[in-house]
Design brief:
Residues 570-761 form the Histidine kinase domain. The chain has 779 residues and is mostly helical. Helix content is 74%, strand content 6%.
Length: 779
């Protein structure tokens, strides 16, 4: 290859990538502040399958909303943009939004809406994306949450894509300005600076380089004032700015600063990118040896982007290290999985350069033709398509001329001429240089020597202008470097001078303030000490009098409380004695009775004993307000078992929770239990057959369930709508109503009686008296 074509090769290779670089810059440089996300863009710790299972088994609360947002984020940010994944993502986001509305969880609702806005940005539906984030910002504006309103505008600005066709540039700037204004209002300096950096990046895209540089220098100054150490992203923007300006020396300097701050911060997530652009800057300025170690770092990285790894092959070719270049190229070509259009294009381009370098003209021609056959119109703008077509036609014409295929070369020369003349954008001189060099060689091969001389003159003129421009650029770079150094030194001198003056002023102010403050403090302390002493004396006297009064009242109250407890126990004791007297009288009367009268007396004895036992438990217990049913029920059952003498015939199975009931509930339940057990003993097991009676009492939070079950012959069916004939059943129904309980009778291999009620928190004597008055009609 001639020197002319080597120049075109490296120049064109990076000009194309330079045009595409801004999309990477605007989308990839910023770490989007997804304040509406429960999870970041990383994959969740749980697999999608585990997350889906947790969602299905979770309660409909905020935990489910969080899981739905996590799973939706997984599908949204999953590598590759597949419609099924995006549909799954928005489905989970909408489920989260609906559930948050039902739960009245506004913060979760607007997090979900933020993720839906992210979804529309992935779908490039910018109108819907903007609609959602404006809605979020409006809500937080109404609620006065400045921080979250600012985050909403900042996120929208970060997501909003700009191209030469969609006209979003001013909208994106306005969103960043709104976010910055709110951050400053909220005294959030760090995020305010980051928003300013976003505006500067847009000015780079607009080619307003001076304004962009001024803003980025302001960003650096403000970051350093805050003590913020993660400056690598800002230096990266500055290097990209200088690169597109053509100031490659400054681009290298800024890139080295970016790498230095990246390593100091420990944030190496963009290390491959920094290494790539440093190698690119060195390459473009033809410093191939300096570029090589950075290109090796790029090639050794785990980055899946095949496009950027081609830089190593290009640098090795420039250094005539063709063997190593071939090895590196084969590694790239062997990576066939998940290649993007840009990766494929870069591989074809670098393969053509390699085979051209080693004089495998047939393979070089093959790869250039592959590039021409790619579907550029789907992936690139028309201007970029025209440049790639130009490059391929110039290279194909040159290679055919070198192998004496003049007629084939003519076709490519003609295509090049048409492309150059019909281009809608100004083209770099390098393209014309290659074209005139091909025309010169073609006319020489055809014997058109006069035209060849004209072609040679035009080629040399462009070549000289390029050389002069390069020298002028070098001089300009040196001037800029000198002026920058002088400016930086002046800034440092001014900062040092200001720091000395400020230190002196601060010292004088401090001394004055200390003197004044010391005097005032001494007076305040003395006055406070005196007032404190007097106040303490007055307070002590009041406290002594108050304590004496409290002690007297406590003694009186303790005496009254002891007397009340004694009186209550005495009442319960006397009631119990009176009930036992009644039992004894009934027992004496029963000796002279038989049949139904005797049975009635015995039933009354059992009922009275059930009440008597409650009073006995009350006066024997330290707690005179409630009855422990776990102690009461076994004793009552034992009494009935002894009374009927059925210990060998009927077995009792008890399962009673430690439940404390008030007197107003314990007495009705004792009577119900007495009636149920008595009926079971008397009627469930005829002909002295053996059986079992189970009694359980369970406390399920605020409901208590009493269940009496026997395995006897079962009670007779009766109509629940009419009053039963049995005295015992009427008594149980009436007692259940008194304690607002539900009672249910079932016949299933015996009789099952279930009483369900709520525990009564009242423990006053009035409740007991009312309950006993209501029972008199049943006794």
């Amino acid at each position: 290859m001639s020197k002319v074509y080597q120049t075109i090769t490296y120049y064109v290779s990076f000009v194309i990538k330079g045009n595409l670089y801004f999309k990477l810059l605007l989308v990839g440089t910023f770490q989007i502040l997804l304040v509406f996300q429960v999870t970041a863009q990383d994959s969740p710790a749980l697999s999608p399958k585990d997350l889906l299972q947790k969602i299905k088994t979770s309660r409909p609360d905020t935990n489910r909303i969080s899981l739905q947002l996590q799973l939706g984020s997984y599908y949204l940010f999953k590598p590759g943009e597949y419609k099924n994944d995006l549909d799954s993502a928005v489905n989970f986001f909408k489920q989260a939004a609906q559930l948050s509305v039902k739960l009245h969880e506004n913060d979760w609702h607007y997090k979900a809406l933020g993720m839906i806005g992210n979804y529309y940005s992935e779908m490039t539906d910018w109108a819907r994306c903007k609609e959602y984030f404006v809605r979020i910002a409006g809500y937080y504006h109404q609620t006065g949450n400045v921080e979250k309103e600012a985050n909403a505008w900042n996120t929208l600005a970060n997501l909003y894509d700009i191209t030469p066709l969609n006209g979003h540039t001013q909208d994106k700037i306005r969103f960043y300005q709104r976010a910055r204004s709110l951050y400053l209002q909220d005294h959030d300096q760090l995020n305010a600076i980051t928003a300013l950096k976003g505006i500067a990046s847009i000015h780079v895209y607009q080619k307003k380089y001076d304004l962009a540089e001024k803003m980025l220098q302001q960003v650096l100054t403000e970051y350093k004032t805050l003590g913020f150490k993660e400056l690598h992203h800002t230096y990266d923007l500055l290097q990209s700015l200088e690169y597109v300006r053509g100031n490659y020396t400054r681009a290298v300097a800024y890139n080295l600063e970016a790498i230095k701050y990246m390593r100091a911060s420990g944030d190496t997530s963009l290390a491959t990118r920094y290494y790539y652009f440093l190698a690119k800057s060195y390459y473009t300025s033809q410093k191939y040896r300096e570029a090589l170690p950075w290109a090796r770092k790029v090639a050794a990285s785990k980055d899946s982007n095949s496009d950027i790894k081609t830089v190593l092959v290009q640098i090795l070719l420039q250094l005539n290290m063709t063997k190593e270049a071939g090895i590196a190229l084969n590694k790239l070509i062997a990576t066939k999985a998940n290649l993007s259009f840009s990766d494929t294009l870069s591989q074809y381009r670098v393969a053509a350069l390699y085979y051209d370098k080693i004089n495998r003209n047939d393979m070089a021609i093959q790869y250039y033709k592959k590039i021409l056959n790619l579907k550029f119109n789907i992936n690139y703008a028309p201007t970029a398509v025209n440049i790639w077509t130009l490059v391929c036609n110039i290279e194909l014409a040159r290679i055919h001329l070198e192998i004496n295929q003049v007629e084939k070369a003519a076709n490519y020369i003609n295509n090049t001429s048409i492309r150059l003349k019909t281009s809608k954008i100004p083209l770099e001189p390098g393209y014309w240089l290659g074209h005139y060099n091909n025309l010169y060689l073609y006319d020489m091969a055809k014997g058109n020597y006069r035209q060849a001389i004209k072609d040679l003159a035009l080629r040399d003129h462009i070549k000289d202008s390029l050389f002069t421009a390069a020298k002028d650029k070098q001089v300009a770079e040196l001037n800029i470097k000198y002026e920058t150094t002088q400016k930086e030194q002046s800034i440092k001198d001014l900062q040092n001078q200001r720091a000395v003056q400020q230190a002196r002023l601060d010292k004088a102010n401090l001394q004055r303030n200390i003197t004044i403050g010391g005097g005032l403090l001494l007076l305040i302390v003395a006055g406070a000490a005196y007032n404190g002493y007097r106040a303490k004396q007055r307070s002590n006297l009041k406290l002594i009098a108050k304590q004496q009064q409290i002690n007297t009242q406590n003694a009186t109250l303790q005496h009254l409380l002891s007397e009340k407890d004694w009186l209550l126990k005495e009442v319960h004791h006397r009631v119990k004695n009176n009930l036992h007297t009644v039992i004894c009288l009934l027992e004496a009367q029963a000796r002279n009775l038989e049949n139904d009268a005797l049975e009635a007396i015995e039933n009354s004895q059992h009922r009275i004993y059930a009440m008597s036992l409650i009073h006995q438990k009350l006066y024997q217990s330290d707690d005179i307000k409630t009855i422990n049913m776990a102690e009461y029920v076994p004793e009552l059952v034992q009494s009935l078992e002894d009374s009927f003498g059925i210990s060998d015939q009927v077995k009792f199975k008890l399962n009673i929770d430690p439940i404390n009931l008030t007197l107003s509930q314990a007495i009705p339940l004792g009577l119900i239990l007495n009636e149920a057990v008595t009926n079971a003993i008397k009627y469930a097991f005829p002909d002295t057959r053996n059986g079992e009676i189970s009694i359980s009492m369970m406390d399920d939070r605020n409901l208590i369930t009493l269940k009496i079950v026997d395995n006897g012959i079962g009670m007779s069916l009766f109509d629940r709508e009419t009053e039963p004939e049995s005295m015992g059943l009427r008594l149980m129904n009436g007692l259940s109503e008194d304690i607002e309980a539900t009672i249910n009778f079932e016949i299933d291999n015996g009789t099952i009686i279930t009483i369900v009620f709520k525990p009564d928190t009242l423990s006053d004597m009035e409740g007991f008296l009312r309950s006993t008055e209501n029972k008199e009609e049943f006794i």
